[in-house]
Amino acid sequence: MDMKKRIHLELRNRTPSDVKELVLDNCRSNEGKIEGLTDEFEELEFLSTINVGLTTVAHLPKLNKLKKLELSDNRISGGLEVLAEKCPNLTHLNLSGNKIKDLSTIEPLKELGTLKSLDLFNCEVTNLNEYRDNVFKLLPQLTYLDGYDKDDKEAPDSDAEVYAEGLDDDEDDEDDVDEEEYDDDTAPGDEEEEEGEEDDEENEEEEEEELSGEEEEDDDLNDREVDDEDDEGDF
């Protein structure tokens, strides 16, 4: 599917100005250019064009509100100077898997004052000596390079955090179910205690019955003795 058609489908009867996120991954670009995007996408904040065969970003429209741009797994080798003009408020840029070989190619990114995260995985530039130190010096506004900051602390992954929260919610639900089950059907330990108490009560009742039975027998014996004494008195 070509990029223009994909954009039309992604709109889903919306106007371009209503769109904040646009994912065009794995569609076909025409001659390595971005096509179908216009200045009308004025509210766009996230654009993903992974593996679409791009060789240039020169045809990007003006996207003042764009914050995250995914360009990984394309064939871009330069021309990044247009990004400061087209996407002045960019905070996250992913260029992983492109044909970026030296630091001079990414030097124009220093004009992106808001850029905080840059990914260059699987680009030849990552093989240069002191690559990380030199990129942080070249782009002092960066906080994260390839997912890690200057102190090699990993960047928080928003997707992962959501997933973890989802797991926590599931665990909470399971805990609630367990609690309900324990409320409805008493926990095993409590059952044993209750059974023990019931046994004790039954034993006590049996003992009381035996005692009452013995007392009745004693009363019968006493009555008989009294009757016998009365009989002897009559004689």
From TrEMBL:
Q: Where does it localize?
A: Nucleus
Tell me where in this chain the U2A'/phosphoprotein 32 family A C-terminal domain is found: 128-146
| Biased composition regions of type Basic and acidic residues, renumbered to the chain | 147-156
Q: Where is the composition biased (Acidic residues)?
A: 157-235
What domain of life does the UniProt record list for this protein's source? Eukaryota
GO CC terms for this protein? nucleus
The record's SUPFAM superfamilies line, in alphabetical order, gives: L domain-like (SSF52058)
Q: Name one GO molecular function term.
A: histone binding
Q: Name one GO biological process term.
A: regulation of apoptotic process
| Ranges for region Disordered | 147-235
Question: Pfam families this protein is in?
Answer: LRR_9 (PF14580)
Could you list this entry's UniProt keywords, alphabetically sorted: Leucine-rich repeat, Nucleus, Repeat
Q: Which family does it belong to?
A: Belongs to the ANP32 family.
**Function per UniProt:** Multifunctional protein that is involved in the regulation of many processes.
Specify the protein name. Answer: Acidic leucine-rich nuclear phosphoprotein 32 family member
Q: Which organism is it from?
A: Echeneis naucrates (Live sharksucker)
